[in-house]
What does this fold into?
Amino acid sequence: MQSVSDIIDIWQRRTERVSADIYHRYMLDGKTRGFPALKALEEAFDTVMREVRETDVGDIPAVWCMYNMGCVVKTRRAAFSIDLVHRRAAELASLLDFALITHNHQDHWQPDFYRAMDNAGKTVVSNFLDNYGAVRSSKAATPRRRCGGFTRAEKTFRFKDVEIRTSLVDHNDSLIDFTTAFEIRIGGRTLYHTGDCGFKSERKLHTVWGRPDLWLFFPGCGVDIAKAVRRIRPKRLVFGHLWELGHACGRLDASLLRTALDAARSVGVEPELALWGDRIQ
It folds into this structure.
């Protein structure tokens, strides 16, 4: 069995050869160009699509990592995504009941997936798409239905057997209250997804339903990891947003990731890594 250190080294080698330009070209044409990281990204989508279709879910929801902070969740009665970004993301729209988006950055949402959900009459909850679900662009068509949802203030949403509470956290020292954190209750279990929380957002992180069973957490953007983890005390902590290919700079590299792991361990929590295509639970 590979150690966490070995996994970090392998993924660092795979991804450091893929420049942001190569990644964006792949997003347009789907050509992996012989890069193992891009091949892994394609395979991740096929894996998640197949397992979402085939998996029967009991009391414990199933959670898959698609890419970075993107994940797909399936419960007894529903399926939904959070920050789903992939070249083929729109293909998943038919399998999902709704989608959640933490903030308006291209590595956390993409217009073609949003339009596919909108065209299928599916709800997309964000803090920047308006209540008519319109993409704010001069080229955007007039929307046909009301299917968006604002989270500019703390709110509670319910979809089938999923209850969601929102709160706002800072992305960095200039993007204040820019990111929506989602606390999600499914039966007796909770999932906490905090998008790109950063700067001093550890002061704003909070849960209503107690210690989350699973926290998908990006240990970047300047957040104080030890303070954040001590505040939330998750039963399981999973680091996401690993090896963002679309960033020309500012990627969470191996050395920073190891520092983040040590910070969480310093307060008695052993983090796990969310790798593309993995079923997290």
Notes: The chain has one domain: 4-273.
